[in-house]
Amino acid sequence: MAELSAPRLSSPRASDPPWVRQGAEEQRQLPGATRGGVRAMLRLEGLAVLAAALAAYQYLGASWGAFAMLFLLPDLSFLGYLAGARVGAIAYNAAHSYVGPVALLALGLVGEMPAVLALGLVWAAHIGLDRALGYGLKYGSEFGATHLGRIGRADPW
Fold first, then answer.
1. Which three-class secondary structure state does DSSP give residue 145?
2. pTM of the predicted structure, to 2 decimals
């Protein structure tokens, strides 16, 4: 299983005077996080998943009211952070990886269960939107450390 904690950000070089700080962008970089073109491609991939899930949901003819009610359901996994960063990251990642929605989509297709298929599409759409907005899978070290880079406000100090 992959390591769930991200390495801590490095401090300024020892040769730098104490008043020299890293730039805001350098502070936001996490070792192991994607950046540049790879990060942009992963965000575009999330947008493509969102668009495909919405198109498939429309084609399925399922209720848009149900879609709206279920769309934010995976975000209840944030409650895992009440038990700490490591447990929160595990709960968040379980609800925000494509494994669950793909399993539901396969089950819905093979078992000819439109409700299960619709649930899988809503879940996939949610994850796609999160990825398109830059919210990646979490590391266990802190809430803002993700595989797509740091999220949240930059530390002004």
1. strand
2. 0.76
10-31 CB burial, b ≥16 within 10 A, e <16? eeeeeeeeeeeeeeeeeebebe
Helices (H), the chain: 24-28, 36-60, 64-70, 85-95, 99-110, 114-132
Please report which helix (H) or strand (E) contains residue 152, including its range: none
pLDDT, tens digit (0-9, with 9 covering 90-100), for 140-153: 777 777 777 677 66
- Structure token digits, residue 141: 């070290």
Pull the structure tokens for residue 142: 């802190």
Q: What is the rounded distance in angstroms from the CA atom of residue 76 to the CA atom of residue 57?
A: 22
- Closest residue by Cα to residue 40 from 110, 112, 146, 133: 133
Q: How far apart are CA 101 and CA 156, in angstroms?
A: 38
